[in-house]
Design a protein that fits this description.
The complex is a heterodimer of chains A (248) and B (300). Chain A is an alpha/beta fold. Chain A has 5 helices and 16 strands. In chain A, the strands form 3 sheets. Chain A has a 7-stranded antiparallel beta sheet with strand order 4-3-7-1-2-6-5. In chain A, strands 11-10-9-8-12-13-16 form a 7-stranded mixed beta sheet, with helices on both faces. Chain A starts with a strand and ends in a 6-residue tail after the last strand. Chain B has one domain: Alpha-Beta Barrel (TIM Barrel). The model of chain B has no long low-confidence stretch (mean pLDDT 95). The two termini of chain B are 28 Å apart. With 300 residues, chain B is α/β, with parallel strands linked by helices. Classes of the chains: A alpha/beta (248), B alpha/beta (300). At the A-B interface, strand 14 of A face strand 5 of B.
Amino acid sequence: MKKYQATLLENRRLGPEIYSLWVKIADLGEVKPGQFFEFATDTRFLRRAFSLADRDGDRLRFVVKVVGSGTRWLAGLSAGSKLDLLGPLGEGTRMPSSGPVMLLAGGVGAAPLLYLARKLNGQGLGVDTLLAAGTEEELILAEEFGSLCREVILATDDGSCGQKGLLTDILPTLPGTKDIQSFYACGPEAMFVALKRLNFRKPVYAFLESRMGCGTGLCMGCAVRGRDGRYRRVCTDGPVFDLEEIEL
Amino acid sequence: MNLEVFLGKSRFRNPSVLASGTFGYGLTYTDVIDRVGAFVTKGITVQERVGNPPPRIWDTKETVVNSVGLENVGLKRFKEEILPRINTSTPLYVNLAGVTIDDFRTLIEGLRDEEKVSGFELNLSCPNVKEGGAALGQSADRVRKVASLARSLTTKSIWVKLTSNFCDVRETAAAAADAGADAVVIVNTLNALIIDLANRKPFLGGGSGGLSGPAIKPHVLYMVKEVSRLIDIPIIASGGITSGKDVVEYLLAGASLVQIGSINLVDPQASLRILKGLEGWLKREGIVCVSELIGRLEGI
């Protein structure tokens, strides 16, 4: 973990209240899929956490969904702005050793899975993505997933694009899911709850989002309950957990 | 330049203390711990506590409200698993979070022979547990009882961390001083309620929380100034410090040491930046010893 002075290179609207930010950070080492950065904002005392969505050398991509004043401030920045970042934070995800694998993306949960897809590209594991969102407008990064995956299945709650229905309703109907060796999922909490109920016999790695204090393990603010009744810190114990190991 | 501060015979290399609950158990970011004046652990209870359900944290530009609920490993695991791994030359203070007076006896007896422990911070003020703690800190009589008991059990330093919630800190601070405490810490977080308006219920999983951050600094400065006129033991100020100038203000108001808390959550290295700011200020003002500033507020 280090503190970085980053420069915003590009801020582009991806969908309703959803923005893609490319930032430049010099001298950054390896970042694992699932790891995140904490962004200082002008409107909040604590930083706001965003997983790395993509990387091209010293250019890093993040997806920001506006949910409050901190994210509103970030979404309003223009190219050239300076950013105060802490990272990379978190453990990141365990990489699969065998395939095929499937990425399950709900809404802006697509962001960290895109970076995972980038890292898995060219390994010959066979990566499929089920990319779901509320509406066609909220369906993001489809083109990028398309360039990195064997197959991308699109779905929207309202049927405005791809299959109609929730990700967790569509998933069991897909042919070939029984061959999948592991699932990597990121989306709203309700999606994880429903995934748990589907009870796959294969591991499901859940990329969790949480209201965080520090992101560095110091404050114990971002708690998720483990199966043993004890809380885990989303920031330093995760943010990726085996879905089996956590209670939602 | 001399940043040293003495509290009785205890020497601190500079006036900064990492506040309980904002720097874990002291097992990470040890480069920071090694350079501050003292480190206070996360609050330790007799039994392990899982803490409050999420959400546990909320903020605005100038405030943080937390409701962690004293999640900690408990006395036994702290002693066996954590303490052996803490390795620093910086004075280590263990924050003891008793629910009853007997808890404080158990905690102090359990840790008083540990060489690594320089002293104890009696947590009579956590707003995030329903029982004990803050209730003990709200009455001068009970503060006197707990502090006297602690004093009778150990020769190690005893700091009493006070609350200003529903009580008069001047009275509880005087009681701690009477009982033989080495210092009082002013003050723990302020009771706070955040409302989830859409659902018409408390937002935080624990129901309510503790308010900290820069917004409380003017209030805590005032309390430090008031209490410092009344008691003879040192005051450790805690409330919204984010810069070297904030440290100077607290020293002028009467504090001997300051605790750095919420800002650690923004940047684990913040205390080092604050110390640099303090040094810069002293240099500009031509002050050689930081301890010269303590209680030197003019015009009061």
